[in-house]
Design a protein that fits this description.
The chain is α+β, with helices and mostly antiparallel strands. The chain has three helices and five strands. The longest helix is centred in the N-terminal third of the chain and has 14 residues.
C-alpha cells in the first residue's frame, strides 16, 4: 500500500469534474481543490464543488500494490431550497460513478458512490451536500 496515489487521484478527479459538461453547466468552472475565497454575500455566490477530505486504506494483493480511497466532495449553493445544490451534486455523482479518469500514476479499478449528507449553514443561507465516493486504485509504479 502507498499513499503516493492520493495526489494523482485528486488531480484526475479535479480534471474530470472540471471538464464534465453536466458539472460545468451547473458550476460554471467552479470546481475547487480548496474552499474558495467568497465575497461574503452568500446570496451572490454561484454553486460550486470542493474536493475535500479523504481516507485511505490498504487494498493490495499478493501481486499488486493498491489503495482504497474514500473521497469527499462537497457541493455548496445559496438558494433557499436545495434545488441548485442537488442538481450539482447529481451531476458530480453522474460524472464520477463508474468512470476511470487517467491518473499520472496508478489506475482506478472502480469508482462508486458511498453516501451523501445534506445540511444548512450560515443560518440557512447556504446549502451543503457532502458526497462520499470510494475509488479502488492499483499502483503501476
Amino acid at each position: 500500500m502507498t499513499y503516493a496515489l492520493a495526489l494523482p487521484l485528486q488531480q484526475a478527479v479535479f480534471q474530470h469534474l472540471s471538464a464534465d459538461p453536466g458539472v460545468t453547466a451547473l458550476a460554471a468552472g467552479r470546481v475547487f481543490d480548496a474552499p474558495p475565497q467568497l465575497s461574503g454575500d452568500a446570496e451572490a455566490e454561484a454553486a460550486y464543488a470542493v474536493i475535500g477530505d479523504e481516507s485511505v486504506q490498504d487494498w493490495s494483493s499478493a501481486d499488486t500494490a493498491g489503495a482504497a480511497h474514500t473521497l469527499g466532495i462537497s457541493v455548496f449553493a445559496t438558494e433557499r431550497s436545495f434545488i441548485e445544490a442537488k442538481r450539482l451534486a447529481g451531476a458530480v455523482s453522474d460524472a464520477l460513478i463508474g468512470v476511470h479518469p487517467a491518473m499520472s500514476r496508478g489506475r482506478i479499478v472502480t469508482m462508486r458512490f458511498l453516501s451523501a449528507r445534506t445540511r444548512r449553514e450560515q443560518q440557512g443561507r447556504v446549502r451543503r451536500i457532502d458526497l462520499r465516493f470510494r475509488a479502488l486504485i492499483e499502483d503501476d509504479a
